[in-house]
Amino acid sequence: MKKRNCIIGQSGGPTIAINASLAGIIHKAKYSEEYQNVYGMINGIKGLLEGRYMNLLEEFNTGEKINALKQTPAMYLGSCRFKLPTHEENTDTYVKLFEILTKLEITDFYYIGGNDSMDTVMKLDSYAKSIGCTIKFIGIPKTIDNDLMGTDHTPGFGSAAKYVASSILEVVHDSLIYQLQSVTIIEIMGRNAGWLTAAAALARNEYN
């Protein structure tokens, strides 16, 4: 049976969760012995369009290196902020991408990220089906905003929620040392969702 080849990309904002997801795919691909090659896009889909990728099985050739990746901050493969147009809007982009995927004999395409990354996966899958391509396109969610449809919670949200609650509590501790009436406004990110803002309530305790 012919072995498969996969390619993995990361995009969006950096978190330790995104490298843990990458490590998980590499581990599964390496020890399942189903894959001949595991490629990594350098700087996401934008880097792939420029022909920049690496062989991850050569780089992570031991279990120790894969485990170290789980604890590595930021994004090992780099990132991009690239809004992929639809194939109706720009067919040339898709033709170029699929030429690269065909050249590498890719059977599985993994993309780790948030909303725009999942949108990229959906568009690539749609184009593949329209041309009868059998590559499997898989989106792996990662977003601190916790706003991806169909998910209960996304990797990255839990640690961000804890950070927000801890920060709010520290601000309150600082304010309570003064006999001063004040209003403090704290801006918390979260795209169009309020999950991180809601997490600020975790700072409540018996005296606050």
List the helices and strands and how they pair.
Layout: E1 4-10, H1 16-32, E2 35-41, H2 44-49, E3 53-55, H3 56-59, H4 63-70, H5 91-103, E4 108-113, H6 115-130, E5 136-141, H7 157-176, H8 195-199
Parallel strand pairs: 1-2, 1-4, 4-5
Antiparallel strand pairs: 2-3
Give an overview in words:
The protein has 8 helices and 5 strands, in the order βαβαβαααβαβαα. The protein has helices at 16-32, 44-49, 56-59, 63-70, 91-103, 115-130, 157-176, 195-199, and strands spanning 4-10, 35-41, 53-55, 108-113, 136-141. The radius of gyration is 21 Å and the shape is elongated. Strands 3-2-1-4-5 form a 5-stranded mixed beta sheet, sandwiched between helices. The model has no long low-confidence stretch (mean pLDDT 91). 43% of the residues lie in helices and 14% in strands.
Entry summary:
This protein has helices at 16-32, 44-49, 56-59, 63-70, 91-103, 115-130, 157-176, 195-199, and strands at 4-10, 35-41, 53-55, 108-113, 136-141. With 208 residues, it is an alpha/beta fold. It has 2 domains: 4-141, 3-Layer(aba) Sandwich (Rossmann fold); 157-203, no CATH class.
